UniProtKB/TrEMBL annotation:
Entry's Gene Ontology molecular function annotations: gibberellin 2-beta-dioxygenase activity; metal ion binding
Family annotation (InterPro entries): DIOX_N, IPNS-like_FE2OG_OXY, IPNS-like_sf, Iron_ascorbate_oxido_reductase, Oxoglu/Fe-dep_dioxygenase_dom
Fe2OG dioxygenase domain ranges (all copies): 168-282
Domain of life: Eukaryota
Biased amino acid composition, Acidic residues: 336-348
Organism of derivation: Nelumbo nucifera (Sacred lotus)
Record's protein name: gibberellin 2beta-dioxygenase
Region feature Disordered, mapped onto this chain: 329-348
Keywords, ordered alphabetically: Dioxygenase, Iron, Metal-binding, Oxidoreductase
GO biological process, alphabetically ordered: gibberellin metabolic process
Protein family (similarity comment): Belongs to the iron/ascorbate-dependent oxidoreductase family. GA2OX subfamily.
Lineage: Eukaryota, Viridiplantae, Streptophyta, Embryophyta, Tracheophyta
Enzyme superclass (EC): oxidoreductase
Annotated EC: 1.14.11.13
C-alpha cells in the first residue's frame, strides 16, 4: 500500500489546480478563510481586485524600464548596492549571483529622495512614482495583515499591520530586471548542455526575511515557488494581480503555522522581465516573537524572541539560500516538523 502524506496531497493539489487566487472583493469572511488556508498550506497566494490603482503601477513600471534601459555606465552611478542602490548580477555580499540587475530602495521617503538623484535625471518624478507605489502597496499589505490578525483571533487587529505602518518601518522596495540573453548582462560562462535561455537562474532560491512580500511583474514568466525537493511550480505572470508570500518574520510570529515559502526567479525568456517587490518589515528595534495566541501546550514555542535588527544581521551574514530562521529555534528541528498534524492518508 502506498501512503501519501498530507503534504504530498497538498503538493499534488497545487500542481493540479495551480496557485491559489484570492478575489479581495469577495465577502470578508470568505477572503479571511482563503488567506488562512493559503498561508498555512503554501505561504503563497495571488490577489485580484486588490485596489492598487493601475496608473500608480504603470508609473512605477515606466520609471523602472526607463532606468534599466540606460547604458551600464549611467546605471552604475546608482551603485554598487550598500545594500541599497543599483546592483548587477551580484546579490548580497556573500558571493550569490544571478542573471538579474536591480534597484534596492528603503521605503523611507527621505532615503528615496536621496537615492533618486543618482537614479534619474528627473529625481522628483522618480521619487513621486516610488512614494505613490509604496503607499499603495503598503496599504494592501496592511489590509491583508489585518485580515490575517482577525482570522487568527489576535485581539489587537492591527498587531501585524502596525509594524509595517510604523514610521520607522524597515520595509523595502526592489525592482528586479531580467534582461533577455544577448542584451549585455547575460551569462557567458555556463557549462550547461541546456540552451542558455532555458536554464538561467535570475534570482536563486530563498525565503524572504520580512513579514509579508507583495510582488507584481510584467507579463513575462519567471517566478517559481518550491513544493520541497526539486519540485518547482511556475507562477503564471499576471500584471493585474499581486503575488503575496509569507516571510520568515511572519512564520516566527505565527509559531510556524504559516510557512515562509522558498521561491526563485528564472530568466529564461526572450523578453525582458521586470518585477516590483515590496517587502513589508518592522522597525529595526521591534521584537519578533511567536504571538501568545499561537503558543499552546500542544504547539510549544518554536522560536526565541529576537529583534528585527538581530535577524537582519544574521540574514546579511548568510548566503541567499540559507534557512536562517533555524538559528532562532528553541529546539533542534526534527524531520517531522516539516509536515503538518493531519493523519497520513492511504491513497491506494
Ligand atoms: C544574499 C543576500 C541578499 C539578501 C541578503 C542576503 O545576505 C540573504 C537574503 C537576501 C534577501 C532576499 C530577499 C530580498 O530580496 C532581500 C532584499 C532581503 O531582505 O533578503 C535580499 C537581500 C539583498 O539583496 O540585499
Ligand atoms: O524577481 C522576482 O520575481 C523574485 C525576486 C525575489 O524573490 C526577491 O527579490 O526576493
Ligand atoms: Fe524573494
Amino acid at each position: 500500500m502506498v501512503v501519501a502524506s498530507a503534504t504530498t496531497i497538498r503538493n499534488e493539489r497545487m500542481r493540479a489546480v495551480g496557485v491559489p487566487v484570492i478575489d479581495l472583493s469577495r465577502k470578508r469572511s470568505q477572503v479571511m478563510e482563503l488567506i488562512l488556508k493559503a498561508c498555512e498550506d503554501y505561504g503563497f497566494f495571488k490577489v485580484i481586485n486588490h485596489g492598487v490603482p493601475k496608473d500608480v503601477v504603470a508609473r512605477m513600471e515606466e520609471e523602472g524600464f526607463h532606468f534599466f534601459a540606460k547604458p551600464a555606465s549611467e546605471k552604475q552611478k546608482a551603485g554598487p548596492p550598500s545594500p541599497f542602490g543599483y546592483g548587477s548580477k551580484n546579490i548580497g555580499f556573500n558571493g550569490d549571483m544571478g542573471e538579474v540587475e536591480y534597484l534596492l530602495l528603503h521605503s523611507n521617503p527621505l532615503s528615496i529622495s536621496q537615492a533618486s538623484n543618482a537614479i534619474s535625471t528627473d529625481p522628483t518624478k522618480f521619487s513621486c512614482a516610488v512614494n505613490e507605489y509604496i503607499e499603495a502597496v503598503r496599504d494592501l499589505a496592511c489590509e491583508i495583515l489585518d485580515l490575517i490578525a482577525e482570522v487568527l483571533r489576535i485581539p489587537d487587529k492591527s498587531a501585524l499591520s502596525s509594524l509595517i505602518r510604523d514610521v520607522d518601518s524597515d520595509s523595502l522596495l526592489r525592482l528586479n530586471h531580467y534582461p533577455p540573453p544577448g542584451s549585455g548582462i547575460d551569462c557567458h560562462d555556463c557549462n550547461s548542455s541546456l540552451p542558455r535561455h532555458q536554464n538561467r537562474v535570475g534570482f536563486g532560491e530563498h525565503t524572504d526575511p520580512q513579514i509579508l512580500t507583495l510582488l507584481r511583474s510584467n507579463e513575462v514568466e519567471g517566478l517559481q515557488i518550491s513544493l520541497g525537493g526539486e519540485v518547482w511550480v511556475p507562477v503564471p505572470p499576471d500584471p493585474t494581480s499581486f503575488c503575496i508570500n509569507v516571510g520568515d518574520a511572519l512564520q516566527a510570529m505565527t509559531n510556524g503555522r504559516f510557512v515562509s515559502v522558498r521561491h526563485r526567479a528564472m530568466a529564461n525568456s526572450f523578453k525582458s522581465r521586470l518585477s516590483m517587490i515590496f517587502f513589508g518589515a518592522p522597525p529595526l528595534h521591534a521584537w519578533i516573537s511567536p504571538l501568545s495566541e499561537m503558543v499552546t501546550p500542544q504547539k510549544p514555542r518554536l522560536y526565541r524572541p529576537f529583534t528585527w535588527a538581530e535577524y537582519k544581521k544574521v540574514t546579511y551574514s548568510l548566503r541567499l539560500g540559507a534557512t536562517r530562521l533555524d538559528f532562532f529555534r528553541t529546539t533542534t528541528p526534527s524531520p517531522s516538523d516539516d509536515d503538518d498534524e493531519e493523519q497520513d492518508t492511504a491513497s491506494a
